[in-house]
C-alpha cells in the first residue's frame, strides 16, 4: 500500500499485472464508466466510452502531466471531473459521485509538483 493509504479493493487486482518493479498502488477510484489506479509512478485507467465496445488501457507517467484541473459537482452538473493536461493532449476523467477529491488532489500534487 502506498503513502496515501488508498485501500486496495478486490477490483484493484486487474491493475496488479500491469505494475513494474518497485511500483505500488496508492489508490483505486471508481469512474463513471470504469476505474482509475494511482500508483507511485503513474496513472492507469481504461479508456472506454459508454457506447463503444472497445477499451484501451491508458498509462500516464506523472512526469508527463503538465497540469490538472479538478471540477467539483455543481448545481446543475453532477459530474466530478479531473482534467489531466499532458504534452500530446488532455484527458477528462469523470469520477463517481462521492469520490474523495481532496485525496485525488493530494495524489496529483504530490507526484506532479
Description:
It contains 2 helices and 7 strands. It is mostly beta strands and 113 residues long. The strands form 2 sheets. Strands 1-2-3-4 form a 4-stranded antiparallel β-sheet, with no helix packed on it. Strand 6 and strand 7 (90-95) form a beta hairpin. The relative contact order is 0.18. The model is unreliable at 1-8 (pLDDT under 50).
Give me the secondary-structure topology:
Layout: H1 13-16, E1 25-30, E2 35-39, E3 42-47, E4 56-61, E5 65-71, E6 80-86, E7 90-95, H2 101-112
Antiparallel strand pairs: 1-2, 2-3, 3-4, 5-6, 6-7
What are the low-pLDDT stretches, counting only 5+ consecutive residues below 50?
1-8
Distance between the termini: 21 Å
Number of strands: 7
Shape: globular
Q: What structural class do you assign from the helix and strand content?
A: mainly beta
Q: Radius of gyration in whole Å, from Cα?
A: 14 Å
Strand percentage, roughly?
35-45%
How many individual helices?
2
- Please outline the major beta sheet: 4 strands, antiparallel
Helix content class: 10-25%
**SSE run:** HEEEEEEEH
Widest sheet: strand ordering: 1-2-3-4
Mean pLDDT: 80
Keywords for this entry:
113 residues, mainly beta, 4-stranded antiparallel beta sheet, 3-stranded antiparallel beta sheet, 7 strands, 14% helix, globular, disordered N terminus
Summarize the structure in short.
With 113 residues, this protein is mainly beta. Helix content is 14%, strand content 38%.
Amino acid at each position: 500500500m502506498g503513502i496515501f493509504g488508498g485501500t486496495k479493493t478486490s477490483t484493484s487486482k486487474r491493475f496488479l499485472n500491469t505494475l513494474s518493479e518497485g511500483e505500488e498502488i496508492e489508490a483505486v477510484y471508481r469512474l463513471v464508466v470504469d476505474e482509475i489506479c494511482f500508483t507511485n509512478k503513474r496513472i492507469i485507467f481504461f479508456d472506454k466510452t459508454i457506447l463503444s465496445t472497445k477499451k484501451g488501457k491508458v498509462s500516464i507517467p506523472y512526469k508527463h502531466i503538465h497540469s490538472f484541473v479538478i471540477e467539483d459537482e455543481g448545481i446543475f452538473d453532477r459530474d466530478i471531473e479531473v482534467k489531466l493536461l499532458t504534452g500530446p493532449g488532455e484527458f477528462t476523467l469523470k469520477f463517481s459521485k462521492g469520490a474523495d477529491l481532496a485525496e485525488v488532489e493530494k495524489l496529483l500534487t504530490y507526484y506532479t509538483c
